Amino acid sequence: MNKAELGSALRALRQASGWEAKTVARRAAMSGSKLSKIENGSVMPSVVDVDQILTAIGISEEIKAEYMSVARAAATEATAWRLYRRLGYHRKQQQIQAIESRTTLLRLFQPSLVPGLLQTPEYVQAVLGRKNLTADQLARSSPFPGSPVSISVSCRFRCVRPTSPVTRSRSRMTAW
C-alpha cells in the first residue's frame, strides 16, 4: 500500500467492519465530510487522523502499525516538499547540480528498452513502429540512409551527447 491508496484502503476497512461513515466519523472526532474527503483521496490524512479512524473501527495493532507507517511516510514527504518550497527550489536544484558535477559514472536501468549495442534493426523498427511513423520518416531519422543498421546506430548515437557531463568527452561521440 502507498499513500495514494491510503484513503481507499481506510474506506475498505470501514466497510469490511460494517460501520457507517457517520458513526466512524463521530467516534474519530471528525466531521463526516472530512472522513469522506480522506476516503476519496482528496485530502491526505494526518497521522493522528489515521490513528483515530483505525481506533474508531477497532482494527488490530498489527494492521494499525502498517497503516500508520504509510501515514508517517506521507507526512514526512509532505514536510520535505514544504521545506523545499520555503527555502526555494533553486537550493534543491543547486544540491542536485553539485551531486551531478561530482558524478563520474552514471548507470541507468530502463526495463522497458533494450540497451544500445543489443538493439537490432528489427527491435528498433518495432519500437519506432509504435509511434506510427512512415517509412519515409524512419529513413529521414537515419544518419546512414540505406544501411541495414542505420536506425539502430542512429538511436544509439542520438542518446549520448558529445558534451555530456557524464562522459566528459567533448572531442568524440561515444556510443555505449
UniProtKB/TrEMBL annotation:
Question: Which SUPFAM superfamilies does the UniProt entry name for this protein?
Answer: lambda repressor-like DNA-binding domains
Q: Which Gene3D superfamilies match?
A: lambda repressor-like DNA-binding domains
- What protein name applies here? Helix-turn-helix domain protein
| Listed SMART domains | HTH_XRE
Any Pfam family matching the protein: DUF5753
Q: Which InterPro entries match?
A: Cro/C1-type_HTH, DUF5753, Lambda_DNA-bd_dom_sf
Ranges for domain HTH cro/C1-type: 10-63
For this UniProt entry, the molecular function terms from Gene Ontology, in alphabetical order, are: DNA binding
